Amino acid sequence: MSEPHEAAPTAPEGSGPPAAASDQPELKKAITPKLLLLFIVGDILGTGVYALTGKVAGEVGGAGWLPIIIAFSVAMVSALSYVEMVTKYPQAAGAALYVHKAFGIHFLTFMVTFAVLSSGITSASTSSIFLAENFLKAFQLEESLGDAAGGTATAIALVFLALVAVINMYGVSESVKANVVLTLIELSGLTLVILVAFFAIAKGQADFSRVILFETAGEKSLFMAVISATALAFFSMVGFEDSVNMAEETVDPVKNFPRALIGGLSVTGLVYVLISVLAVAVVPIGQLTEATTPLLTVVEVGAPGIPIDTIFAFISIFAVANTVLINMMMASRLLYGMSKQGVLPGFLRGVLPTRRTPWVGVLFSTGLAIALVLTVRFVLAEGTISALGGTTALLLLAVFGLVNVAVLVLRKDKVDARHFRTPTVLPVIGALTSFALITPIAQPTQNYVIAGGLLGIGLVLYIITWFYNSAVRARRTRFRHPDDLGRQ
Prior knowledge:
Blueprint: E1 4-6, H1 19-22, H2 33-44, H3 47-60, H4 65-88, H5 95-103, H6 106-138, H7 142-145, H8 149-170, H9 176-202, H10 222-233, H11 253-282, H12 285-290, H13 294-302, H14 309-341, H15 359-380, H16 384-409, E2 418-420, H17 425-436, H18 445-473
Antiparallel strand pairs: 1-2
Helix pairs in contact: 2-9, 2-11, 3-10, 4-10, 4-11, 4-16, 4-17, 5-6, 5-16, 6-8, 6-14, 6-15, 6-16, 6-18, 8-14, 8-15, 9-11, 9-13, 9-14, 14-15, 16-17, 16-18
C-alpha cells in the first residue's frame, strides 16, 4: 500500500470545487475511524452473502470460495482507486465527480450517475425479494401456501418497497450510529452461521472433501464457470463505494479513510470466504444450490435439534432491510440532484414543503423498483435474485472500470493537499478486470437486458430534458456543479 502522496504546492485553476459549492457551510467532521469502519462493514454485508452463497456454488460446485476470492481481489483494487480519489477530491459525489473531472463529458457523467442510481434500484429489488422469502420462512408459511408462495413473496416485496417509500417520504435519514446497530445484527447472523457450522464439524457432520470439488453447470468449462461465478459473487463485495459520501464528515480522511476502507473490505472478504467454505462442508452442494435461503439451510442442517432457524430468518430480514432503505434513499436523492442540475426533467425536483424530502424522486425510484420486481418475477419466475444481483454487479463493474481509468487520467491534476496514491499498476489491473467481468463471457444476456432497460429509461429522460432545454430554455444540458450530486 502506498503512503499518502504530497502534492504540488499550487493547484491549477478548476481543480477545486466550484464557487457555488464553496458558499455552503462545511459539514461537521464527526465520523471517527471506528464508526467509519463499522459503516463500511455494514454497507458491504447484507444480501449478497445471505442470498447468493448457493448461487455461486451452483456455478462452480464446492469451490465457491474461489470466485469470492477473485471478486474480493477485483473489489480491493478498485477500492484503492476510490481511496486515492476520495482523499484527493473529498467531495460527496463519488464516481460521477471523478469521471467528470477526468473526461469532462457531461453525457458520460450522466450515464455514470444513472448507472449508480440503477444499481441502487436493482440492489434494493434483490434485497426486497430476499427479505420477502425470509419473511415466509420466519413464519413457516411456505408449505401452507404451496404454489401461491411465489406470488405471496412478490406481494410482500412490493409492500416493503412501498413502506420504504413512506419512510423516505417522511424524512427519516439513516445516521451512522443507526447503521452500527444494523451492522451488529448482520454480523450476529453470520456469526450464528459460523458457530452452527463449527458445531456440526465438532459432531463429525461436515465433509470438507466437497470444498475442493469443482462442478460446472451444463457444458460450461471450468474457466467460464469461475468467471461467471466471480461476476455474480462481486455483488457481495459492493457497498464500499457508498462510503465516499462520508468523506467530508470523516476526521482526517487522508489518514483514516485508507485504513477503514481496506480494513472493512478485508474483514468482510475473510467472513465471506469462511462462510462459503463452511456452508459447503456442512450442506451437500445440491441441497445448498436449490435453497432459496442458503444460510438458513446451513443453520437447519447444522443444528437440527436446536430451534434457531426462525430466529435466523428474522435476523436475515434485518440484515437486508437496511440495504433496501439506503439504496432507495440514494436513488431518490440522485434523481433529485440530477433534476436540480438540469439534466433530468424538472418535475423530479419536487420537494414536500413540510418534510423537505424529494417526494417525486422517492415515488419515481420506487415505481422503477416495483416495475422491475414485477417484470423480472413474471419473466424469469426462478432465478430472480441471481438476475437482479448480477445486474447490480454489472452496472457497478462498469462504473469501477471507469473510475480506475479516471485515476490514471487525473494523475496530471495536481491538488494542493496530501492524498493517498495507489501504485499505478493497480488501476490498470482494476480497469482491465472490471471491464472483463462485464463482457458476455461473464454476464448472461438477461443482465444486459435489465441494465439496458434501466439505462434506456435514463436516456429517454435525458433526451426529453435536452429537447426542452434547447427548444424552450435555450440552454445547454450540462452538469453545473457535479460536486453537489452526492449531498443529501
